[in-house]
Amino acid sequence: MLRLFVPILAVLAATAAAPTRAPVLVELFTSEGCSSCPPADRVLEALDAQAIVLSEHVDYWDHQGWRDPWSSRASTLRQEAYARQLGIQGPYTPQMVIDGRVEFNGSEGRRALDEIAKARTRTQAEIHLTRNATGVEIAIDATPHAGNVYVATAQESAESQVKGGENNGRRLRHVSILRSLKKVGTVKKGAGFHGTAEVAADAGRVIIFIQDGDAGTVHGAAMVEFRPQMNADTRR
């Protein structure tokens, strides 16, 4: 298994030289209590240079000997909504979802690269983000698709020393850990959107995306990073 996985990471690293992240949303449903998840966490980290990624930690592994410090019921409910929308039997880990369109085992790095490449060819909404005194201003050009506008905040990265469960004794690393997700508005087909999302100055990553319903197709995404002394507009 490891012999197959290492070359996949090498391929991901070799293709991660894009100057900016593509406006493609890659979500990984994961858990520190799941022994199959660390390889997928590493795949997500390798993808971080070329797409907008979110690590969403579910809570249904928390009773197996280790409570994931990043887990939340909200992430579990979001994954369950994807299971219904995508017509699969139920949630599992590690599960990767790209632009709300396709799902597969999050350890499949080559599949992830293929799906991101397909997503790049689709017409997506143009989302422009500008930092202001209270958060971020959102400007969406006339979009070819209607949808809900969501704001997610994510911690840049973190590490845990696991002391129980299936990963007992392992030190695990995560990137772009989802901390909050809320709907801030809607946009109609052919229309634009302007609004302001209030976020803390130390919010980390702020990701805005347009999605059908609460777990449908994603029609555009953008990200701005809230770091000290950062004062530049971001368009990704």
The fraction of residues assigned to DSSP E strands is 35-45%
Task: Record the strand order, biggest sheet.
Answer: 2-1-3-4
H/E series: HEHEHEEHEEEEEEE
Mean pLDDT: 90
Shape type: globular
Would you identify the regions where 5 or more consecutive residues have pLDDT less than 50? 1-6, 230-236
- Total separate domains: 1
Q: Please give the share of residues in helix.
A: 10-25%
Structure characterization notes:
The chain is of the alpha+beta class. The chain contains 4 helices and 11 strands. It has helices at residues 2-14, 37-47, 73-86, 109-120; strands at residues 22-30, 51-57, 95-98, 102-105, 127-131, 135-140, 147-161, 171-187, 193-198, 204-211, 218-226. Strands 2-1-3-4 form a 4-stranded mixed β-sheet, with helices on both faces. A 4-stranded antiparallel β-sheet has the order 8-7-10-11, with helices on one face. The protein has a 3-stranded antiparallel β-sheet with strand order 5-6-9, with no helix packed on it. β3 and β4 form a beta hairpin. α1 runs parallel beside α2. It is globular. The termini are far apart.
